[in-house]
């Protein structure tokens, strides 16, 4: 104030100049925010912390991370979270701690594609494998992983590797080659747009798409893809080999199918399968051919045989679809009390387990059937559809429907993977008790899994045919809708009786025979053909 | 210029180069630690650690140098000796600013060279020219920050400059956050508005995303931040001139 009194004009001028400069500074500040906005739009800057972190539970962010974040160390905070997640995973494998850390890293640094890629992969693969049946069905974790990857794509629409990962997961875990093709094509488009960049690895995308077409039983489309591939890479040995194989093995049958000359197509395929029973592409085509002929059991046998080939999730999906259909019809046909025995893919995995790879020491593993019980909490959602409602006191009977001779056979009952009972005399029975409800996941209203496994003596197992013969099953084309008489208390039977009984669901013989294949061709091994270029 | 050289010499005498040594150790040790990660993650961690260390160590030097350079001259009364010579107050401020910039940028350059070497080794001989763009923007960011420190030191004490400078760093690094944060009442709304309007936006000088993803960097994304930094620095220096000119010792 003294200064103002002494030199009022000069000081006033100075104040005015300062105010003017502050006004200009505000405009410069606006310009700065506009620049940041442009940077976000251009994808080279991250959105506001507020926008991206809102999905992360606050309790999962440690004080260190929050402190670093608000001091401007956002990227370092993300790195810290990632580092911790890797430590948890390697040292403890403790998913409830690993996953939130990974999610936090993704939220803090959403423009780093590897975080999304690895997190989605962990969910779809590791978490699905380790948590399966204890918390959620496997497919739910796979879908969770895919959702994470797709969220990553929102932030990183140029990240070729995420498109590839999503496509691969759809193909590998969900048996959905069509969606896999869509993502692979998007990956290719993005790759070509970004052709100028130097840090991306070259794509194997055309091979992948071609192979997906092969899995779909569309050799002509696959051939076109390989031809496209060989325009860019004329000396690609995979492309050359696959082109020759497709022309030699599948193309003729496929064209016959297109012209509805189904007999000729089947003859071509069966002839080929006689020499190479593990050729899954031929099996896929045969299954589709059988379905187009309304030959459900022929199709089922073909899908089953294909599913036996190395990890063919596509065939498994179709096998389960048809198996559920057969089961539904059987249930209605036999007039049993209403229940839905949903055969999940996991069950089918187990049913398809070849005897040769069984791990039982004295007794090879036999037939397994999984029955899901309704969640303890009535309103709890059931991700796999309706379930049986089994109450304490209910008796569960199980019969090994594939075995003609059950002497020496032993049934083992499991709830949540814990063995709860054994029985060696038919009808194999155990009584469900309240304490069996206790298990991982039940407290939070998730469902329980009851599994029955049948074990047979080794010497006896050798005499059993390796697969079921579905030809003996007599089913009406259209199941009656009113075949559900009321019953006071359901007796739940996993599987159904002996061959020639009141309704054998799947008595044994050989699916290879069902498909017209040569004897002994029913337990195929991975094809030695051009399957070698599988990714 | 004489004042600038003197300030630079004084900074070197303060052994600020020790910080460079510290940085080199951090970079090398860090790059070894991150070898456990996948190549993409390793690169990200090394780049984040390197670029941020350059920036934050340099900011630390700028705060420490800037907080003492003018208040100490006033406290020790050496300012009178300087101003007794044919040196204007504006020249004095400009000299201090240039000297501090030289010291900080010299140190930053040494750190950048060390980082580039570590990065090239990690990339097995590869080098990304985007890193040079990033370094240019970091230099502009440091110049802007030094101008703020100079501005603060024209009218306050060492402790005040230290505290407020640190606050400016935090606010500037989270400028978008303050702009977007929802206000619960009018007072906080005005506060957030004021902060987002006046605080420098350090976020626009960051190019680590395109460096890591390999995305192309449009020339605008380099020139606009440079223009912003130049304008902000000019205003800060003008404000410093005006205030320092009116100040009585």
Explain how this protein is built.
The complex is a heterodimer of chains A (535) and B (249). Helices cover 52% and strands 8% of the residues of chain A. With 535 residues, chain A is α+β, with helices and mostly antiparallel strands. A 4-stranded antiparallel β-sheet of chain A has the order 1-6-3-4. In chain A, strands 5-2-8 form a 3-stranded mixed β-sheet, with no helix packed on it. In chain A, a hairpin with a 2-residue loop joins β3 and β4. With 249 residues, chain B is mainly alpha-helical. Chain B has one domain (2-246). Helices cover 80% and strands 0% of the residues of chain B. Chains A and B meet through α2, α3, α5 and α7 of A and α3, α7, α8, α9 and α10 of B.
Radius of gyration of CA atoms of chain A, rounded to a whole number: 30 Å
Low-confidence stretches of chain A: 335-344, 347-389, 440-447, 461-535
Contiguous runs where pLDDT drops below 50 for at least 5 residues of chain B:
none
Fraction of residues in β-strands of chain A: 5-15%
Number of strands of chain A: 9
Rounded mean pLDDT score of chain A: 66
* Biggest sheet strand line-up of chain A: 1-6-3-4
User: How is the biggest beta sheet of chain A arranged?
Assistant: 4 strands, antiparallel
Biggest interface: A-B, 53 and 59 residues
Rg for CA atoms of chain B: 20 Å
Structural class of chain A: alpha+beta
Mean pLDDT of chain B: 81
Q: What is the element string of chain A, with H for helices and E for strands? A: HHHHHHHHHHHHHHHHHHEEEEEEHEEEH
The helix-strand sequence of chain B is HHHHHHHHHHH
Shape of chain A: flat
Helical proportion of chain B, percent range = over 70%
Give the count of structural domains of chain B.
Answer: 1
User: What gap, in angstroms, lies between the N and C termini of chain A?
Assistant: 80 Å
């Amino acid at each position: 104030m003294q200064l103002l009194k002494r030199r009022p004009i000069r000081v006033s001028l100075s104040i005015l100049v300062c105010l003017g400069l502050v006004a200009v500074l505000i405009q410069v500040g606006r310009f700065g925010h506009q620049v940041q906005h442009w940077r976000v739009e251009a994808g080279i800057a991250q959105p506001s912390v507020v926008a991206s972190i809102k999905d992360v539970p606050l309790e999962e962010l440690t004080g260190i991370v929050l402190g670093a974040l608000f001091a401007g160390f956002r990227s370092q905070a993300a790195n810290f979270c990632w580092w911790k997640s890797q430590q948890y995973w390697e040292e403890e494998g403790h998913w409830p701690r690993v996953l939130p850390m990974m999610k936090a890293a993704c939220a803090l640094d959403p423009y780093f594609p590897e975080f999304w890629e690895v997190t989605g992969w962990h969910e779809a693969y590791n978490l699905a494998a380790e948590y399966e049946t204890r918390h959620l069905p496997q497919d739910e974790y796979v879908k969770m992983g895919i959702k994470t990857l797709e969220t990553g794509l929102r932030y990183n629409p140029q990240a070729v590797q995420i498109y590839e990962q999503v496509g691969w997961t759809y193909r590998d875990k969900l048996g959905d080659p069509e969606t896999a093709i869509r993502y692979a094509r998007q990956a290719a488009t993005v790759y070509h747009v970004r052709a100028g960049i130097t840090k991306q690895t070259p794509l194997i995308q055309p091979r992948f798409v071609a192979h997906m077409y092969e899995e779909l039983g569309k050799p002509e489309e696959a051939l076109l893809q390989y031809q496209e591939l060989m325009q860019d890479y004329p000396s690609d040995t995979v492309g050359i080999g696959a082109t020759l194989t497709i022309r030699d093995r599948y193309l003729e049958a496929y064209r016959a199918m297109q012209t509805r000359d189904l007999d000729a197509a089947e003859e071509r395929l069966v002839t080929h399968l006689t020499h190479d029973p593990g050729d899954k592409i031929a099996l896929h085509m045969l299954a589709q051919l059988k379905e187009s002929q309304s030959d459900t059991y022929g199709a089922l046998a073909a899908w089953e045989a294909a599913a036996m080939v190395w990890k063919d999730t596509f065939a498994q999906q179709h096998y389960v679809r048809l198996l559920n259909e057969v089961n539904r019809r059987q249930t209605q046909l036999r007039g049993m009390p209403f229940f839905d025995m949903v055969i999940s893919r996991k069950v089918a995995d187990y049913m398809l387990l070849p005897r040769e790879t069984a791990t039982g020491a004295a007794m090879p593993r036999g037939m397994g059937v999984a029955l899901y019980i309704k969640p303890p909490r009535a309103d709890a959602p059931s991700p796999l559809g309706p379930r049986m409602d089994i109450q304490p006191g209910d008796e569960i009977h199980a019969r090994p429907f594939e075995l003609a001779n059950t002497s020496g056979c032993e049934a083992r009952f499991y709830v949540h993977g814990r063995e709860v009972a054994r029985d060696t005399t038919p009808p194999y029975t155990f009584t469900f008790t309240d304490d069996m409800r206790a298990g991982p996941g039940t407290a939070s209203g998730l469902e329980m899994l009851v599994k029955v496994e049948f074990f047979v003596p080794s010497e006896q197992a050798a005499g059993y045919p390796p697969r079921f013969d579905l030809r003996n099953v007599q089913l009406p084309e259209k199941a009656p809708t009113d075949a559900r008489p009321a019953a006071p208390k359901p007796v739940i039977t996993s599987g159904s009786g002996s061959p020639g009984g009141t309704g054998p669901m799947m008595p044994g013989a050989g699916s290879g025979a069902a498909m017209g294949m040569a004897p002994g061709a029913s337990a195929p091994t991975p094809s030695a053909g051009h399957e070698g270029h599988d990714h | 210029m004489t004042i600038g050289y003197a300030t630079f010499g004084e900074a070197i005498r303060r052994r600020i180069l020790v910080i460079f040594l510290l940085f080199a150790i951090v970079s090398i040790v860090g790059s070894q630690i991150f070898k456990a990660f996948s190549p993409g993650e390793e690169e990200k961690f090394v780049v984040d650690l390197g670029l941020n260390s350059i920036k934050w160590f340099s900011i630390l030097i700028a705060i420490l140098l800037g907080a003492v350079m003018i208040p100490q001259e006033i406290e020790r009364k050496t300012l009178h000796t300087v101003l007794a010579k044919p040196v204007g107050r504006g020249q004095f401020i400009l000299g201090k600013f240039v000297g501090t910039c030289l010291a900080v940028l010299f140190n930053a350059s040494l750190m950048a060279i060390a980082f580039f070497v570590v990065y090239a080794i990690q990339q097995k001989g590869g080098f990304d020219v985007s890193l040079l763009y990033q370094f240019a923007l970091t230099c502009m960011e440091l110049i802007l920050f030094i101008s703020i420190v100079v501005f603060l030191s024209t009218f306050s004490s060492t402790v005040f400059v230290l505290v407020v400078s640190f606050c400016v760093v935090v606010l500037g690094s989270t400028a978008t956050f303050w702009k977007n944060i929802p206000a619960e009442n009018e007072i906080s709304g005005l506060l957030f508005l004021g902060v987002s309007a006046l605080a420098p936006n350090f976020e626009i000088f960051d190019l680590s995303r395109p460096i890591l993803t390999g995305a192309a960097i449009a020339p605008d994304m380099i020139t606009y931040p440079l223009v912003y930094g130049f304008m902000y620095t000019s205003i800060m220096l003008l404000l410093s001139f005006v205030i320092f000119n009116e100040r009585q010792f």
